[in-house]
Amino acid sequence: MRPLRERIVVKAQAGWMGMGRGAGSTALGLFQILPVFLCIFPPVTSPCKILKCNSEFWAATSGSHHLGAEETPEFCTALRAYAHCTRRTARTCRGDLAYHSAVHGIDDLMVQHNCSKDGPTSQPRLRTLPPGDSQERSDSPEICHYEKSFHKHSAAPNYTHCGLFGDPHLRTFTDTFQTCKVQGAWPLIDNNYLNVQVTNTPVLPGSSATATSKLTIIFKSFQECVEQKVYQAEMDELPAAFADGSKNGGDKHGANSLKITEKVSGQHIEIQAKYIGTTIVVRQVGRYLTFAVRMPEEVVNAVEDRDSQGLYLCLRGCPVNQQIDFQTFRLAQAAEGRARRKGPSLPAPPEAFTYESATAKCREKLPVEDLYFQSCVFDLLTTGDVNFMLAAYYAFEDVKLLHSNKDKLHLYERTRALAPGNAAPSEHPWALSALWVALLSLSQCWLGLL
């Protein structure tokens, strides 16, 4: 007799195949099969995330409609979201029987119910709130308020933060801190819901110090919530409206789930995108722009194929050949007591700071000597522009406002000996020698056994 697991899987496959026998039995068969998969394929045993796709489809379709009402547009929307989810996990699910069963079942249901493969999906998280929970029914649909789409007793979403400021310094969604060159146009965020691109230009002619001079944010059209909106800011031009002059998401029913608010005229704006649970802060400090965002992990990772996705600075960080080791630069400046980079191609900044004077200046606004403080010192030494001190200060203020983990506000650099080429450091150089000795001894024992 076949093992229980195998018998259940075969039965589940037969259930998918039986769905074509009638619309009335379709949902019933589906609802019987999904719990089976949820029970027999524990998510901790495999990187395949098909169970997540199954459970999201189950949550989007069960309880909200009668089993005979699959012909509604909502059913096709949920089905497209299900298909979208399976495509995202295809790479890790190639050998998973539950995955292949789900893919075939989706195709069958698409045909049976005349669902187009192109159209809206229910992401992010389309949930139906219990009666009386929504306080925005008259203002916007529930799907247009990300946080309120969660049931009272479900886990709150996890939020992440990314920021870009100064010459330029990047804090990624994973709290990695980098100083980069990235001259020209670079993608900062690129997912299913919005794109952010920055343009960095030299602070001084011929200088390797760059700062953000232009910012473009594209909010993609999303279901009944918002139309596509474009926001653009440049040096000395920080508008309090989208490119078309509007201040919200357009004419759709949930337009107010996307709003621009001017905090300080020409210096500070905030964009609230409630439908994706996202807050964006853009500032002009001196002549240049800073960017900060708070975004749910679910939205951060909402991409068609993350493995083949192109560069996305907030998620992947700067390329290695674009990164600057400002610790080495700082140590050199401290040792030499000089305020400028050497070489004829790097002109001196208009106002020269020594390492000591830059340190004292930055300490006025940033008393904790973390990476924001170190960035401030670096920028004063490379640019001579005191506005970069303010950029670091406001960047940290935005972190305090937007970061969900208050224990990670400050980031620190490990004390380490830098290896050539920015290789991975070792805090204890003797540890590497000890490791080689251990490996050599192990190899000799292994050869002895052979």
TrEMBL record:
<keyword id="KW-0732">Signal</keyword>
<feature type="domain" description="Repulsive guidance molecule C-terminal">
    <location>
        <begin position="158"/>
        <end position="403"/>
    </location>
</feature>
<dbReference type="GO" id="GO:0015026">
    <property type="term" value="F:coreceptor activity"/>
</dbReference>
<dbReference type="GO" id="GO:0009986">
    <property type="term" value="C:cell surface"/>
</dbReference>
<dbReference type="GO" id="GO:0006509">
    <property type="term" value="P:membrane protein ectodomain proteolysis"/>
</dbReference>
<dbReference type="Pfam" id="PF06534">
    <property type="entry name" value="RGM_C"/>
</dbReference>
<dbReference type="GO" id="GO:0045944">
    <property type="term" value="P:positive regulation of transcription by RNA polymerase II"/>
</dbReference>
<dbReference type="GO" id="GO:0051044">
    <property type="term" value="P:positive regulation of membrane protein ectodomain proteolysis"/>
</dbReference>
<comment type="similarity">
    <text>Belongs to the repulsive guidance molecule (RGM) family.</text>
</comment>
<dbReference type="GO" id="GO:0098552">
    <property type="term" value="C:side of membrane"/>
</dbReference>
<keyword id="KW-0336">GPI-anchor</keyword>
<dbReference type="GO" id="GO:0031175">
    <property type="term" value="P:neuron projection development"/>
</dbReference>
<keyword id="KW-0449">Lipoprotein</keyword>
<dbReference type="InterPro" id="IPR009496">
    <property type="entry name" value="RGM_C"/>
</dbReference>
<keyword id="KW-0068">Autocatalytic cleavage</keyword>
<dbReference type="InterPro" id="IPR040287">
    <property type="entry name" value="RGM"/>
</dbReference>
<dbReference type="GO" id="GO:0005783">
    <property type="term" value="C:endoplasmic reticulum"/>
</dbReference>
<dbReference type="GO" id="GO:0001843">
    <property type="term" value="P:neural tube closure"/>
</dbReference>
<dbReference type="GO" id="GO:0030510">
    <property type="term" value="P:regulation of BMP signaling pathway"/>
</dbReference>
<dbReference type="GO" id="GO:0005886">
    <property type="term" value="C:plasma membrane"/>
</dbReference>
<dbReference type="GO" id="GO:0010977">
    <property type="term" value="P:negative regulation of neuron projection development"/>
</dbReference>
<feature type="region of interest" description="Disordered">
    <location>
        <begin position="117"/>
        <end position="140"/>
    </location>
</feature>
<dbReference type="Pfam" id="PF06535">
    <property type="entry name" value="RGM_N"/>
</dbReference>
<keyword id="KW-1003">Cell membrane</keyword>
<dbReference type="GO" id="GO:0030509">
    <property type="term" value="P:BMP signaling pathway"/>
</dbReference>
<feature type="domain" description="Repulsive guidance molecule N-terminal">
    <location>
        <begin position="48"/>
        <end position="117"/>
    </location>
</feature>
<dbReference type="GO" id="GO:1990459">
    <property type="term" value="F:transferrin receptor binding"/>
</dbReference>
<dbReference type="InterPro" id="IPR010536">
    <property type="entry name" value="RGM_N"/>
</dbReference>
<keyword id="KW-0472">Membrane</keyword>
<keyword id="KW-0325">Glycoprotein</keyword>
<protein>
    <submittedName>
        <fullName>Repulsive guidance molecule BMP co-receptor a</fullName>
    </submittedName>
</protein>
<keyword id="KW-1015">Disulfide bond</keyword>
